[in-house]
Amino acid sequence: MKRLDPRKLALGAAAPLVAILVSLLLTSVILLAAGDPVGAVWAQFFKAPLPRQIIAIVNEATVLYLSAIAVAIGFKMNLFNIGVDGQYRVASFAAAVFAGQHWLPGWLNIIVSLIVAILSGAIWAGIAGFLKVGRGVSEVISTIMLNYIATYLVAYLLKGAAVKVEGSNATSTAIIKEDSRVPGISLDGIIATPNKLYGLIVLAILVGFLYWFVLSKTRFGFDLRATGRSETAAVASGVKVKRMVLLSMVISGGAAGLVGMPLLFGQDYAYGDTVQSGLGFAGIAVALLGRNHPVGIAFAALLWGYLNQLSNGLQIGAGVSDRLVLIIQGIIVLSVVIAYELSRRAGLRLEQNRVAAELAAQRAKQQPKEVAA
Amino acid sequence: MRQVMKMAVAATVASLALAACGSSSTGTPAATGGSTGGAASGIKVGMAYDVGGRGDQSFNDAAAAGLDKAAKELGVTSKEASATTGEAESAREERLQQLIDAGYTNIVAVGFAYAKSVGKVAKANPNVKFAIVDDASPDSTGANIENITFAEHEGSFLVGAAAALKSKSGHIGFIGGVEVDLIKKFAAGYMAGAKAVNPAIVIDVKYLTQPPDFSGFGSVDKGKAAAEGMYQAGADVIYQAAGGSGGGVFTAAKAAGKMAIGVDSDQAKTAAADVRDVIITSMLKKVDVGVYDFIKSVKDGAFKAGVKVFDLKSGGVDYSTTGGKVDDIKAKLDGYKADIISGKVVVPSK
Question: What residues 207-246 of chain A have any CB closer than 8 A to a CB of chain B?
Answer without folding.
Answer: none
